[in-house]
Structures are given as structure tokens and as C-alpha cells.
Amino acid sequence: MEREHLSKQFDAELNEIRGKLLEMGGKVEAMIAGAMQSLLERDSELAERTIAFDHEINRLEMEIDDKCLAVMARRQPTARDLRFLTLALKIVTDLERMGDQCVSIAKRARELNLEPVLKPYIDLPRMAHAAAGMVREALDAFMSGDEKLAIKVCEDDQLVDDLNEQLQRELLTFMMEDPASISRAIKINHISKCLERIADHATNVAEMVIFMLKGKDVRHNAV
Amino acid sequence: MTCKVRLEALNIHFGKTHAVKDIGMDFPEHSVTAIIGPSGCGKSTMLRSINRMHDLVPSARVTGRILVDDADIYAREVDPVSIRRRIGMVFQKPNPFPAMSIYDNVVAGHKLNCRLVKGEADEIVETSLKRVALWDEVKDRLKTNAMNLSGGQQQRLCIARTIAVKPEVILMDEPASALDPISTLKIEELIEELKERYTIIIVTHNMQQAARVSDFTAFLYIGELIEFGETKKIFTTPEKKQTEDYITGRFG
């Protein structure tokens, strides 16, 4: 069990930041689900709502940034508290970028919904499912200090990368067979790339969690 | 880095109290080492043993060895006065000699040891005061009483008095805790400059101060050395949970 600070207020401030980060993570997950649903169910209104929802993610990013800076200025945090706060500042950036990727997906979905379906979507939902799971698990690892879970997230990234490559190859065959499919294939390819980027951001978060827990930097190396 | 001061199995007892327990560590030359820890952890006791200040306390018993440049300062043939000339001390409360002028305070150490030629004394006063960044503030009133200076100026004067006798090591026991924030920053700035010439060991309650001024940090708890390492490491990723809990404000 984590020992508490002598200052209860300090603990309360850190807990508030934790809560806001969880809230932001939950909203990013909802955005991934909304963007994908707008594509799979050809629901352009949902795509619009998802695009508009990004505003909420941006607002949380600024709010968390602000709270982190206030705690740093007032408390001069050290060691694990310092690692937590610098990490929180970086995690919000990754979460915010995930939101931007969801906006891109929703925009492509809105365009694709105006054209006939090129092919049944099989790999994209699998990628989205895996990426959303990684986001959730990376944040869970951050909250519970679970190093094993963070390592699992880093490993899961491979699955999404593989699916992305597989889909790209498949789309290439569509485009070679029928030039009329190129415009749609490029958009699907773009969505695939967005999901792959979301998984990368989740991996960044997981790597930072490992750093927070162990003080060991695993970025740019194999875990 | 060369080791300037080495503690070997240092134990200090006051009567039945075991204040410092079996501490061994090296203080690197030309660097600042901070000693931190909760009240009563033995940090001042340990610091004072490095210039044999416990010699005057009848109930104090120091065992183990303290080596300065590989020579034991507690060896039988060593004169404690010569040790205190090589190892200066700055205290928490500025303590200029009250009946003396600024000038006389700086050369007090020399006057105790030998007679000084006038020109030589002038030079020592100027160099020492310049080195503590006090010269410009006091050069026109060197003959006035030192007690007229502000607290921060008095403390810098005391540091000037310490370095006037050209010590090798400067021990500082909470040198800024009685000063206002600006004077504190000036002392910290000074410590940074002084380490080029001297080896500095500083005891401080203020952890942010330790983080700002020191190259190495030692964390003591109930007389034991819990962790010693580079300051950057201690304040970002300490090895021991006890160190982490203390510096993050989880006990103390």
C-alpha cells in the first residue's frame, strides 16, 4: 500500500489529476468506438458528433496541464511524485493525439459513407478493438502501478502493426485490380494508419509507466 | 573524482546515545555533498566530527576513522587546531565577532595564528570578501562594526572569515536557515562558486536546497546512512524506499 503524504492536500491534488487522466482516457476510448461505429454502420451523424467531441478531449488536456503545473509550482515534487507529474504531462499529449486520430477516422468515415462499400470491414474492427484495449490497459497500468500490464501493452502493439500491414497489402490488390477503388482504398488505408498510431500512443504511455515505476527508461529499446 | 574526506566505520556516542552508527562514505573533492535527514538523525553530529568539534564534549566518544587526503585526523599526533584550519566551519546563525570591524573579522583567523604585515592583510580582506561577493557592498566601510550588516551579509562575512585562512574543506551546518529567501539564494550561489576551490559538505533541513546546491546527497536516518549517491539520482529515482518516502514528504 502506498504511503500517504504528510500533507493530505498534496495527496488530494495528485488524486484529482489521476481522476482527470482516467476520465480523459475513457473519453478517448469512447471516441475510438464512436468513430469506428460511424464507419461500420455508415452513420455520418455519429461521425459529426465524434468530430465535435474532440473539443472535450482538448479541454481536458489543458485542464490537466494546468493542474500539473500548479502542483509543481506549489509543492516542488521529487522522486516518484515528480515522475508521476512529468508523466501525466506527457500522457495527456498522447491522449490528445489519440483524439485527433479519431477525428481523422470519423472524417474518412463521413467520406466513405457517401460511396458504395468497397469491401466488408474485418481487420479494421479487430485493430480498433485491440487499440482501444491497449489505451485502457495502459491507463490501468498507470493507475494501479502494474508493470506487467504495461509490458503487455508494449507487446500488444505488434498485433496492431501486423494487422495494419496485412490490410495495406490487401488494399493494394484492390487498387491494382480496379483503379476506381483507389480513392476509397486510400481512405481505408488512412483509417488503418490512424488506428496503428493510436496503438503507438498507447505504447508510449505504457513505456512511460514502466519508467515511472522503475525509474528505468525503456523507450526506443525492446522491453 | 578524487576522494577528499573519507569516513570509515564512523561511530559517535554521547554517553549512552549512539548518534552515528557505523557510517562509511567518501566525500569527493571540489564538489558539494549535502547531508539530509529528519531532526535527530545524526547529520550535524557527523558533520562536527569532521573537524573534531566533539573533542570538547566530555561524554562524546568517536570511533572509526576520518581520513582527509588519506590521513587520519584523529591520529594521536594530529593537532586539532591545525585540523580546524584546514577544515572550516560555517554555522546556522551568522556569528561574526561582535566587537570587531568587518576588516578585523576577516583577518581574525590569521591574527590568532601569526602576525600579519599590513599589505598582506589588506589583500586577504579584499580577496576573501570578493570571493563571497560582499566586497562591493562593504568596501567603503571596512572599519565599521560587523554587527551593522544584515543577516545575509553577516553570513557571507563568516564564510569570508572561514576561507581567509585558506581551508581545504568547508563544513556548513544549515548555513541559510536563519536567512531570508534572497540572502539564501546568494549563499547558494556562493556555494556553487566556492566548490571550484574547496570541498563543501553541507547539512540542510531544506531538501530543495540540497537538490539545488549539491552534487551528491547522503540521506541519514536514526544515525544510519540509508543512501548516498548523485543528487540528481537521489531526487528523481532513489534506490531505497525510505529515501523516497522522506524526500517526497511521506515521513520525517
Description:
The complex is a heterodimer of chains A (223) and B (252). Chain A is mainly alpha-helical and 223 residues long. Chain A has one domain (8-214): Phosphate transport system protein phou homolog 2, domain 2 (Methane Monooxygenase Hydroxylase, Chain G, domain 1). Helix content of chain A is 83%, strand content 0%. Chain A has helices at residues 8-40, 44-75, 79-112, 123-144, 147-177, 182-214. Chain B is α/β, with parallel strands linked by helices. Chain B has a single domain (3-247), classed as P-loop containing nucleotide triphosphate hydrolases (Rossmann fold). In chain B, 37% of the residues lie in helices and 27% in strands. Chain B is built from ten helices and ten strands. Chain B has helices at residues 43-49, 80-86, 102-113, 118-131, 135-138, 151-164, 181-194, 207-213, 231-236, 241-247, and strands at 3-14, 17-28, 32-36, 60-68, 71-72, 87-90, 169-173, 199-203, 216-221, 224-230. In chain B, strands 6-7-8-3-9-10 form a six-stranded mixed beta sheet, sandwiched between helices. In chain B, strands 2-1-4-5 form a four-stranded antiparallel beta sheet, covered by helices on one side. In chain B, α3 (102-113) runs parallel beside α6 (151-164) and α4 (118-131) packs across α6 (151-164). In chain B, 43% of the residues are buried. Classes of the chains: A mainly alpha (223), B alpha/beta (252). The interface between A and B is medium-sized, with 16 and 16 residues.
